[in-house]
Amino acid sequence: MDALLLLLTESWHVFRQAAPFLLFGFFVAGLLKALVPADLLVRHFGGRGFLSVLKGALLGAPLPLCSCGVLPAAMALRRQGAGAGATTAFMIATPETGVDSMAVTYALIDPLMTVLRPLSAIFTALVAGLSANLLPERYLPSVEPQPKGEATGCVTGCCSGGCSASSSGSAASNPAGQASLSDRLREGLGHAFGEMLADVGVWLVLGVLAAGAISAFLPPTLFADLPGGELTSMLAMLVIGLPMYVCASSSTPIAASLLLKGLSPGAALVFLLTGPATNVTTLTVMARTFGAGLTGIYVASIVVCSLVSGFMANRIYTALGFDIHAVLGSVAETLPAWVEVAASVLLVVLILRALLASRHSHEGCAHGVAEH
C-alpha cells in the first residue's frame, strides 16, 4: 500500500504539472484543424524535390498525430500524388513533435529542449525524406490513385480506426472555404478534445504512471552510475524507444522523470525522437503498405539522426552552461496550485468524455456493419 500510494503521489505531481500545458496544446491543435484546409497538405507534397520534403517536414511538425494515426494520413497523401520523400518526412516530423508535446516539454523539462525537440524532428524528417527520394521507383509499391472528391480521411487528426475516417465527412461535404469561421472552430475544437484526445488519452495516462514509477522507485543516481558514458545511455534509450508505443505527449513525462535520475539531455532527446515515431505495430504496417525499402530508410534515418541530435544536444547544453537538472520542471512551478488542480480535473473529465464518446462511436459502427 505504501508503494502504491507513493506511485500515485508521484504520478499526480507529474500530471498536475503537465495538465495546463496539455490543455493549451490541444486547444492550439483544434485551431490548426479549424483554420488549415485539409487539402493544403496534399497540394504541396507532390514531386521529388527538396522543397516538397521541406514542406512535408514543416507542415507535419505542429500536427499532434501519433505514429499509428499518421499512417492513414500518409496513405491518403500518397494516393493523392504526394512524393515518397515528402510522405516520409511527414511521417517522421508529425509523430515526433506537435503543439501539444511542445507545450508539455516546456512545462516538464525546459525551454531549450522545447526548441531542440522540434528542430531535431525536422532535421530527421529532412534526412529521411531526401534519402527516400533517392530510392528507385521500382522499390516503391504502386499506389492506387484516390478518386477526385473522395474524403482524405485523417489528414489533420488522429485515426482511432473503425469509423474514424468518417469524422472528416462533414469537412469534405462542407469545405473549409464555404463553412463559417464559428462552424470550423467548433468542429476543430470538437475534434481536438474528442477524437484526438481519445486517441492519446489512455497512452497519456500510462505515460504519467510510468513517469511516476520511475520517480518513485528508480535510484536517483541510476544513469550517473551507468558505465560507458553518454553513448551507453543513448543506445539504451534507442533500444527502449524503437519498439515502444508511446505518443509525443506521453513520452515527455517519462523523459522528464529519467532526467531527474541523471539521464543526459542528449539521451532524453533520443528517447523523445524514437519513442513516438516507431513501434513494432507501426513498422509492420508500414512495411506492408510502403515497402521494405522505404521502411528501412525510415528506421535508419531515425536511428542515425536521433543519435546525432543527442550528441549535439549535450554539446549545446555544455556550451551554454545550462544545467537541465537544475531547471527541470521550473516552468510549471510558476503556475498557481489552483490552476494546476483545476486543469488536471478538467483534463481528466475531457479524457473520460472522449473515451466514452469513442466507445459509443465504435459500437455504433460495429452495429451498422453487422446489420449491413
Could you outline the blueprint of secondary structure elements for this entry?
Elements: H1 2-35, H2 39-43, H3 50-60, H4 70-79, H5 84-96, H6 99-108, H7 111-133, H8 169-173, H9 181-217, H10 229-241, H11 248-260, H12 265-277, H13 280-290, H14 292-320, H15 324-327, H16 337-371
Helix pairs in contact: 1-6, 1-9, 1-16, 3-5, 3-7, 4-5, 5-7, 5-12, 6-7, 6-11, 7-12, 7-14, 9-11, 9-16, 10-12, 10-14, 11-12, 12-14, 13-14
Structure report:
It is a single chain. The chain is an all-alpha fold and 372 residues long. The chain has one domain (2-371). It has 16 helices and no strands. It has helices spanning 2-35, 39-43, 50-60, 70-79, 84-96, 99-108, 111-133, 169-173, 181-217, 229-241, 248-260, 265-277, 280-290, 292-320, 324-327, 337-371. Helix 6 runs antiparallel to helix 7 and helix 9 packs across helix 16 (337-371). The longest helix is centred in the middle third of the chain and has 37 residues, at 181-217. The protein is globular, with a radius of gyration of 20 Å.
Q: How does the helix and strand content classify structurally?
A: mainly alpha
Strand content: under 5%
Query: What Rg do the Cα atoms give?
Result: 20 Å
Number of spatially distinct domains: 1
Q: List segments where confidence is low: pLDDT < 50 over at least 5 consecutive residues.
A: 145-177
